[in-house]
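Summary of Year 1 activities. Much of the first year was spent building the evaluation harness for sequence design. The harness presents a backbone, in tokenized form, and records the residue chosen at every position. We chose the following record to illustrate the format because it has been used consistently in internal testing since the harness was completed.
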């Protein structure tokens, strides 16, 4: 991707530019800053921020890596402390409004639920994190789920506060991946206003609140 023509991409103070595979789809409102590596067929939604800019003691910035076919949805924030990194494994979904903060490793085929926070954690493959959960300072083994609104901040509590990955969760995770891969194809190949008239100025309709006037 040509960094000079994409205002979503910019360097960190250390001079590291994002490295984005040309098949990835980055919304123009997203901000990708610094030592970020985005793999093939990744979707980054509106107003997501992925920032790798804090240095270690030797002045180096460790990477944020998002592997192939992941989706980073609207309003997600991904960042890392200096000297630490973030890795999100292939075909994982980070859903609307999540915060992922390094040090953090998320394995392949995971789903991080809406508004959840993952910090200083290791999630192995096929982990389902429910809506508004907090996962911090723990290691989760593969094929487990975290219930919505759970605050999981100790390895001693993992067994009591997680369960096995169920069939409904597996189906939902696959559905989210497939939907976002389809969106990538659509955004790459279809003009924004294809098949529609362009919207005109906002004008109040008689007897109603403001609506869009289409010319």
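For this record, the design step produced the sequence shown next.
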């Amino acid at each position: 991707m040509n960094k000079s023509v994409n205002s979503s991409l910019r360097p960190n103070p250390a001079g590291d530019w994002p490295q984005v595979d040309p098949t990835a789809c980055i919304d123009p409102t997203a901000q990708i800053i610094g030592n970020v590596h985005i793999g093939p067929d990744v979707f980054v939604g509106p107003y997501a921020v992925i920032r790798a800019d804090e240095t270690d003691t030797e002045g180096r910035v460790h990477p944020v890596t998002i592997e192939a076919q992941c989706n980073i949805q609207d309003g997600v924030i991904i960042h890392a402390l200096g000297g630490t990194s973030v890795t999100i494994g292939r075909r994982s979904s980070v859903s609307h409004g999540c915060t992922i903060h390094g040090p953090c490793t998320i394995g392949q085929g995971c789903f991080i639920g809406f508004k959840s926070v993952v910090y200083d954690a290791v999630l192995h493959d096929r982990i389902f994190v429910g809506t508004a959960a907090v996962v911090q300072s723990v290691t989760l083994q593969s094929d487990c789920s975290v219930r919505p609104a759970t605050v999981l901040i100790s390895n001693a509590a993992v067994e009591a506060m997680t369960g096995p990955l169920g069939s409904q969760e597996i189906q939902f995770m696959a559905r989210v991946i497939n939907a976002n891969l389809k969106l990538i194809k659509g955004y790459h190949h279809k003009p924004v206003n294809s098949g529609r008239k362009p919207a005109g100025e906002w004008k109040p309709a008689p007897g109603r609140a403001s609506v869009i006037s289409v010319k």
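The radius of gyration is 19 Å. Quantitative recovery figures across the full test set are reported in Table 2.
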